[in-house]
């Protein structure tokens, strides 16, 4: 994995924790977004621990650039990005998740939480629960409404590949429902729900439920008023 943070002491502290794990290898460090992208291109890590607020190229732009890598000799698999932040309700975190991060971690997290988060992201899981993502969206909306989407926006067109049932499942995912809750609400078996989710993620090229929540909000499956109404769910 690669560490990207402008605070050298914090990078050292994280590295000391990560180096104690037999299954985690730190292959590089960087003090800003530009250097972080370069290190990722050179080393091809599975996970990037990325600070969101840095001078120059911040973690949001660096995340976009890393997710856009087309897979060269050392980056056959795009790394998953775990965002570091000081605040759990931070609009910068929302932007980072929107840019392609797989979750976020508070900088004062316990050592075991850091290791657990890195392993979860490496295995393809999302560290941030959909309910937390919904709180982030609600908080972001309270501070500043996003600019209106043009009428000809291509984003809703992505949903055309879904069946009616798949769209129903995606809507419930975006509302923060668990697989069990989706199964109960739609009168489906747990296995059928998992199958639908797998097909939704494949068709829409989603990595995890966090990205599904964001897409559901942006495509209007979960309107802003609904988001605010369930912010304490």
Sequence-ordered SSE layout with sheet pairings:
Blueprint: E1 2-4, H1 8-19, E2 28-30, H2 33-43, E3 47-51, H3 59-67, E4 80-85, H4 91-99, E5 103-106, H5 111-122, H6 130-143, H7 164-174, H8 179-186, H9 190-204, H10 209-218, H11 224-229
Parallel strand pairs: 1-2, 1-3, 3-4, 4-5
Helix pairs in contact: 2-3, 3-4, 6-10, 7-9, 7-10, 8-9
Structural notes for this entry:
The protein has 11 helices and 5 strands. The protein has 233 residues and is an alpha/beta fold. It has a 5-stranded parallel β-sheet with strand order 2-1-3-4-5, sandwiched between helices. The longest helix has 15 residues, at 190-204. The radius of gyration is 18 Å and the shape is elongated. Residues 72-76, 148-153 and 227-233 have low confidence and may be disordered.
What are its keywords?
single chain, alpha/beta, 11 helices, 233 residues, 5 strands
Summarize it.
With 233 residues, the protein is α/β, with parallel strands linked by helices. 50% of the residues lie in helices and 9% in strands.
């Amino acid at each position: 994995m690669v560490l990207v943070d402008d605070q050298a002491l914090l990078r050292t502290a994280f590295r000391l924790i990560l180096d104690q794990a037999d299954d985690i290898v730190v292959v590089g460090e960087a003090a800003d977004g530009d250097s972080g992208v370069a290190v990722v291109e050179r080393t091809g890590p599975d996970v990037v621990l990325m600070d969101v607020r840095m001078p120059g190229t911040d973690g949001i732009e660096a995340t976009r650039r890393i997710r856009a890598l087309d897979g060269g000799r050392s980056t056959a698999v795009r790394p998953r990005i775990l965002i570091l932040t000081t605040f759990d309700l931070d609009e910068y975190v929302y932007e980072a998740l929107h840019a392609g991060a797989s979750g976020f971690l508070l900088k004062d997290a316990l050592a075991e939480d850091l290791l657990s988060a890195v392993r979860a992201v490496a295995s393809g899981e999302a560290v941030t629960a959909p309910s937390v993502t919904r709180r982030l969206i609600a908080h972001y909306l309270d501070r500043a409404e996003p600019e209106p989407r043009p009428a000809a926006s291509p984003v809703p067109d992505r949903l055309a590949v879904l069946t009616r049932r798949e769209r129903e499942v995606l809507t419930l995912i975006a509302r923060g429902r668990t697989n069990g809750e989706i199964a109960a609400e739609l009168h489906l078996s747990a296995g059928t729900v998992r199958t639908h989710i797998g097909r939704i993620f494949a068709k829409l090229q989603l990595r995890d439920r966090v990205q599904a929540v964001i897409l559901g909000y942006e495509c209007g499956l979960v309107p802003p008023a609904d988001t605010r109404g369930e912010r304490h769910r």
